[in-house]
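Dear Dr. H.,

I hope your travels went smoothly. While you were away I took the liberty of generating a structure for the chain from your last submission, since the lab meeting agenda had it listed for discussion. I wanted you to have the full record in hand beforehand rather than looking at slides cold. The sequence, exactly as received, is reproduced here:
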Amino acid sequence: MDEILALNQMRHSATHVLAAAVLELFPGAKIDIGPATEIGFYYDFDIARPLTAQDLPAIEEKMAQIIGENIPFIREEVDRTEAREIFERLGQGYKLERLADIPDGEPISIYSIGNFVDLCRGPHVSATGQIGAIKLLTIAGAYYRGSEANRQLQRIYGTAFQTQQKLDEYLKSIDEAKRRDHRKLGKELKLFTIDEKVGSGLILWLPRGTTIRMELQRFITEELVKQGYELVMTPHIARLGLFRTSGHFPYYKESQFEPMLDRENLPLDMTIADVRISLERGEVDGFLLKPMSCPEHICIFKSSPKSYRDLPCRLAEFASVYRWEQSGELTGMTRVRGFTQDDAHIFCTEDQLEAEILGCISLVEKIFITLGMADYRVRIGLHDPASDKYIGSPEGWEKSESALRHAVKKLGAPYREEIGEAAFYGPKIDFVVRDVIGRDWQLGTVQVDYNLPERFDLAYIGKDNLPHRPVMIHRAPFGSMERFTGILIEHFAGEFPLWLAPEQARVLPVSDPLIPYAEEVHHVLLGKKIRATIDARPDKLGAKIRRAEKEKIPYTLIIGEREAENCTVSIRSRLCTPEKEVMTVAECAQFLANKISKRAL
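The corresponding predicted structure, in token form, is as follows:
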């Protein structure tokens, strides 16, 4: 059996052991579902009292006892009536609702270990003794069926590995991930904050975090200019009809903010309920906080006639967009409700398509290499012909998917194809990056689209003086500035390379009489556009050095009486040992400026 499949089967079996342990310790508890995940497993419970972290050791001990008894997993197929009687007798109402989800004609199976019975498709290991090392991790709230309208259950997360050694390695990686958590470091390093008075999932960039973001934007803008992009700006809202035409509304309705009414044309006698129904039907107009900027970029493209000589037309924007995420899914900077995409759309001919895709890929590669994230793989998301969620013709899908395949093969990076993972309007390339502690992150994306040009009736005049339909490419190397920055914080553990560091150098005068010379040094650094400060607080040098280290300042420039007399500085670095530990002020400023200009890691 495939190693990953075997691990998932073992973890799925561990969820049953978890549920059995909870029911023994908390009689009367109701159980819902317990799947395996990429990093372990979880199970959702409805228990009379809130669980706490102090409950986990006892549950884990009970699980260990069940595993030690090597109880066999027994599978039995039953009819719907028998299954209903079993779970009615057990008082497990959630299982009865899950039973109702199983389509008529599909087999209904139950699994039991000892007295514990669960509704499950399986498969499982043959006995509990085949479950390896386990560890319960956390408890969290989870709405039944993922809807805030339903009761909130208690979700217990755990993990399991074949050996204790592998479990210990994983737990060590969890500790490292906690140390690097961007929410913790973001607060300590004063990079960003979230204020409930502003709203959950809405990032307030503090000055130091804004510096990082602006450096990232400056970096990619330089690359965009080299590739012939033109920068544009679009509003945060647009008429609802624009997103009806694109298909984003109502396709993405559940992940969008509620439309805003066009009050000038609203009938006075309509109730709120009537208005919502009319909005759904398109009978009254309104505005929408934009979930993406492609429809507005299309309007820019259409604002003037185009010929084949104008193509490819490359439009780029750092565009703020808004998505409605449930509060339980919000996570610091990596899962938010308002974010900025490094968004761009290319309008080109079919003959230009492959070259433009390769240009997008080269930009993504440049970003990853510059940021030390060279360990990545490529995923091609294809449409599922059996699904009705996709728009457009089979011919358009075949052309766009073929173009992506050819481009990825030329890239030479490892890739895999996943059916059903395309956007509703076109196939896509996703870049999955592995960070320094082995976690995978989906970052840059490139999407080919034959459908929106059709829906918006886009055209250019070809060499034959006839109108032709352009192809559209959507691409975002960073994806979201918020999410990308959060990932970078964790990737670098807050210790950013010099060019990205919010504060690149700190001048440390040993005593107050040396502050005037420190100010001269500071002035020279600022003249070279180096982000520098002076620590003139009346502390000893050791305290100043420790403070700079805690705040992860790349370079500290120490000034004592000898340095002041010789017009030099003594250099300390947390990044590397400088070739010269003492330099003149001009040498030091040029040394730092050179490193910054190269965007060295």
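Two observations you may find useful: The two ends are 42 Å apart (CA to CA). Residues 323 and 564 are 55 Å apart (CA to CA).

With kind regards,
E. W.
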